[in-house]
Design goal:
Layout lengths: L1 H7 L10 H10 L4 H18 L8 H5 L6 E6 L5 E5 L9 H16 L11 E6 L5 H4 L2 H14 L4 E7 L3 H13 L2 H4 L2 E4 L4 H12 L4 H11 L13 H4 L4
Parallel strand pairs: 2-3, 3-4, 4-5
Antiparallel strand pairs: 1-2
Helix pairs in contact: 2-3, 5-7, 10-11
Length: 243
């Protein structure tokens, strides 16, 4: 870690190269300093080209509500950022625009009070209501998300909670488990419950979702038709985190 810290001091000034960031990249690359430095340089270049650090608004979502469904809902009881997503509630087909939305939403959720990246993880709550073959075939988006999270937000993802995944997805999950990194597979957590109220109660009891506002919103969403544009107004805990 000392050698990596010394190397970071030779780079142009950046609020990104915090001790926590250096540790995350070192962990992601199993202590390989050369690979870690190369990955950090790649991410710095990506951030300079792709992230707007102030005032970003997702233009597709502003023009067409429901274009994307990657919604920060505040934080769980451990301090991890809580993100809700549902493939059936998103109408957008552009992989690039969807990835840009997700990247900026994560960046905003990770920002500290001074705007610098905070040592925070995130939890992705994926709602499979309305999930069908069309969503299962979105391989390019899945690969793009995987690349984004692995290369530019390593060691940030705490877990992915899969809400009532259908048999169709369970088959895909079995195939993924055979080829994916063990640490990534271990973060996939199915949550199966008979009713929306049961899902929300399990999120509270087993996944540290203690915010009453977030749980009330999720309950309303899970009872709504799984189509774009049907989401209820966001709770106060989430409004300031949107892009």
């Amino acid at each position: 870690m000392e050698e990596l810290t010394a190397w970071a001091l030779t780079q142009p000034p950046s609020t990104f190269l915090t001790p926590h960031t250096l540790y995350r990249y070192l962990e992601a690359h199993r202590g390989d300093l050369a690979a870690c430095k190369a990955a950090l340089l790649q991410t710095l270049a990506w951030r300079a080209s792709n992230l707007q650090h102030a005032g970003f608004t997702c233009k597709p979502c502003a023009a067409r509500p429901g274009e994307h469904c990657f919604i920060p809902l505040g934080f769980d009881a451990t301090g991890a950022a809580l993100i809700y997503g549902c493939p059936a509630r998103a109408s957008g087909s552009s992989v690039e625009e969807t990835v840009a939305h997700a990247a900026h939403a994560l960046e905003k959720s990770f920002a500290g009070e001074d705007g610098d990246p905070a040592p925070r993880q995130w939890v992705w709550v994926v709602d499979f209501t309305g999930f069908g073959i069309t969503h299962a075939l979105q391989a390019r988006l899945g690969l793009a998300f995987g690349y984004l999270f692995r290369e530019h937000f390593p060691e940030r993802l705490k877990k992915i909670i899969l809400l009532n995944p259908p048999m169709l997805f369970r088959g895909l999950l079995a195939a993924l488990s055979a080829i994916a990194d063990e640490r990534t597979v271990a973060k996939l957590t199915p949550l199966v419950a008979a009713t929306p109220a049961g899902v929300v109660e399990a999120l509270k009891e087993h996944h540290s979702v203690h915010s009453e506002e977030a749980r009330a919103w999720l309950l309303e969403v899970l009872c709504a038709p799984p189509v774009p544009g049907t989401l209820p107004p966001l709770p106060p805990c989430a409004a300031a985190l949107q892009v």
